[in-house]
Amino acid sequence: MKSPYQLDRLIGLEHFVTSTKGIDGKLRTVAEDFFVEEISNVENFSPEVKNFQALEYTHFTLEKKNWNTVDAIKAIARAVGVSHKRFGYAGTKDKRALTRQRAAVWKIEPEQLADVRIKDIALSDFKKCSDRISLGDSLGNKFRIAIRNIDFGEKELREIISETTNQLGERGTPNYFGYQRFGTIRPNTHIVGKEILKGNLEGAVMAYLANPFETEKKDAYEARKSLQETKDFREALKNFPVRLNYERSMLNALAKNPRDCAGALRRLPKKLRWMLVHGCQSFLFNKILSRMIGEEISIKEKKIPLFGYNSSFSEGRQGEIEREIIEEENIALENFRIKSMPELSSEGLLRDACIETNSNFEIDTDELNEGKLKCTVEFTLPKGSYATVVLREFMKTEPLNY
What we know:
With 402 residues, the protein is an alpha+beta fold. Among the domains are: 6-33 and 140-175 and 355-401, 2-Layer Sandwich (Pseudouridine synthase), CATH 3.30.2350; 42-136, Alpha-Beta Plaits (2-Layer Sandwich), CATH 3.30.70. The chain is 36% helix and 19% strand. Strands 1, 2, 3, 4, 5, 6, 11 and 12 form an 8-stranded mixed sheet that branches. Strands 7-10 form a two-stranded antiparallel ribbon. A hairpin with a 7-residue loop joins strand 11 (360-365) and strand 12. Helix 6 (189-197) packs antiparallel against helix 7. The relative contact order is 0.17.
């Protein structure tokens, strides 16, 4: 079933795997509607260590509401008077949600963390450990999500959910990269990444700084539009809102040396630069998966490349689709060996085409919207998979509602 939404098509989500009617609805009416709990694979205690002075890390549970993980960690670091670089965590969690995850800090005692008082942040379950927590140190996430403002009768709603669940069981839930990977307000990470891959660093800079989206706030939209028309970096510094600190850092560099596009891009944190290239890989993955679904090719027990310079194409029709997509996007595998920014080069890897969710649903009256229903869904996903990808198969609503 083709998606009618422009944002879906922009990031490669061209098809739903299910053919059922969408239940529509609204997510995140309140933060508690979207609960995420990390499934940690990090031991909270190190019994083999008898000298507790050697346990340099304190692990703790971070529960937060309406905070993104990075900002929450920085706030905690300020509260205990150390650099945020001492902290580690397995993954970033949604801002507009209630989330729970393990984190670690080097050479800070549990008592210091226990004294931290920050609105909508709670720290608990402190343990001294010998190991840090790093990105990727989790097995996945558990979700409990309320979909509100559903305008169906209970009987019809149950029938739609049941049929959608059956179809997902038969066909598999697509393991698309979700909206958060690209952004819903300004979904352009893959556009910037593509220009980097092609060696067009000036194009990458302008795609990051200019290229306005109507979904942005007006001051940002106008600043980007002006830069796109004038390419005047000094003037842009006067126009860009202060909150756009990454853009302003790049503009500062370009105002001094307009030709040094690589230097301007390196003003971005390395992780963010890497995410731009990964954004292009994610987009290509989504396009391939969408075409497979559109052609009714089974996605169960299949893997799709996240392309890199060492990638191989799959066999059969899937491999033909993979070649078609990168040719249509004017990208070659060798482009992932990035000569202008070698630190962003990627060998490539494989990603599962579908995921199992085993979702459970509860239907009740919506206490916040008179006369409407609320559907609460619980499921577990492996790390790197997106809850909104599961929800979109049931809701089939305008992407900004996610």
